[in-house]
Amino acid sequence: MFVASSEFIVAADAQSTALGADPARVFVPHPIQDRTDEEIRTLADDAVEEILSCLVADDVQGDDR
Predict the structure, then answer these.
(1) Buried (b) or exposed (e) across 31-48, using 16+ Cβ within 10 A?
(2) Is the bond preceding 23 in cis, omega lying within 30 degrees of 0?
(3) Which among 52, 64, 58, 53 is positioned nearest to 26, based on CA atoms?
(4) CB count, 10 Å around CB of 51?
(5) Nearest C-alpha neighbor of 30 from the set 11, 56, 17, 57
(6) Quick check: helix, strand or coil at residue 55?
(7) 8 A C-beta contact, residue 64 and residue 50
(8) Exposed, middle or buried by CB within 10 Å (0-12, 13-18, 19+), for 29?
(9) pLDDT tens, 8-64?
């Protein structure tokens, strides 16, 4: 299971295919670097339910592809 910004969706798909793995994943809006602390907290708050769902799912696959 991993979390990344939306900039890395294509790269994550390519790596998944290359490795024959399909981990659960959650993507948050890009960019990350220039965001304020409050904006980062909001991104985390918005993503936490999806992240927790991935962690406890029987079929571990992310929905945001």
Answers:
(1) eeeeeeeeeeeebeeebe
(2) no
(3) 64
(4) 18
(5) 11
(6) helix
(7) yes
(8) middle
(9) 999 999 999 999 999 999 999 999 999 999 999 999 999 999 999 999 997 655 445
- Alpha-carbon distance of 58 to 19, in angstroms, equals 22
Are 47 and 28 a contacting pair, CB within 8 Å?
Answer: yes
What is the model's pTM? 0.81
Q: Tell the residue number behind the tokens 């994943």, with chain if given.
A: 25
How far apart, in whole angstroms, are the C-alpha atoms of residue 29 and residue 24? 17
